[in-house]
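Technical note accompanying the year-one report. For the benefit of new consortium partners, we illustrate the data format agreed upon in the data management plan: each record pairs a sequence with a structure-token string. No post-processing was applied to the example shown here.
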Amino acid sequence: MGARDRRGRVPRGGRRPGVRLPRQRHRGENRRLGDGRVPVQPQPRCSGAVRPDVRRERRGAVHHPVPRDPHDPVHRPRYGGGPILRGVAPRQGSGEGRPPRREGLRPHATQGRVTRVLVVTAVDLEARGLARHLGLERVAASAWPHFRGGVLELVCAGPRAAYLEARVARAAPASLVISAGVCGALAPDLVEGDLVVPEVVVSSTATRRATAAVPGLRRAGTLVTVDAIVGTAERKARLWVETGALACDMESALILEWAAARGLAVAVVRGVSDTASRGVSADLAAVVEPDGRVRTTRAVRVVLSRPRAIAEAMTLRSGTNAALKAVAAALGKVARG
């Protein structure tokens, strides 16, 4: 019922019942001596050393001499007055007596500097764009897109590499051939401007060829070469499921086959110009001639007949520029070795 009784009244006296604590103090608290001083606990006097490894004469750890490295040129052991044999043993620290270091132990060992690189594109638009980014000069005596500068030489072989044999004959002998240019993405995660450097190239007849390793570039995945432009996203998705390739083009397998017959090393460096969600329409692809030249009059005719082609052409141009910038940066690494 609390502080009130059953009738709800306060008990007599107006006080509420509670718990009463005894008023006791700890006798040992604040205990002092007779003269007012606080008692201090006597401390035992240390008779020995604090640590067993400390000497009684001095406070210091026992010195343990560190063995010196016999191969270190500074901290190697010196001659302690013993006989010196000159010309019999190799000088310590010089490394003459060590076994030779294996090449595989070097973290960034490369295959050596490339002396001459032949870059092959399909369209003159790709050749001129790469030459502009790389600062290559056009060969004056050539009637077709042909550029040169430093260790790089660039030629345009046309779609499906139709003019490869004739145009490479005018180029200088090369130690490495690179199939360069744009490609269409098949993997959904690739975007415009992504670099594709495949390890394997698959032809339209399912022939697989490995690419050569290029210093400074990391290879990964597969690229498939097709016979015609993949114009729709549905066809790209079907090709990706069937082959598992990252991207597709129309020249790399033919260039690898041509180089393999001549014993030349071949690499593929491509940039994504169109994603897997869209393709290149047949009328826009038809503006490229078999020799790789782009016909302006044909492009104007396509735009007039189908106004929606203007937006498609602008999107394709933007993706092509991004792809060529990525390819040019990769070729610059190859040229620098």
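Partners are asked to follow this layout when depositing records. The first strand starts at residue 117 and ends at 121.
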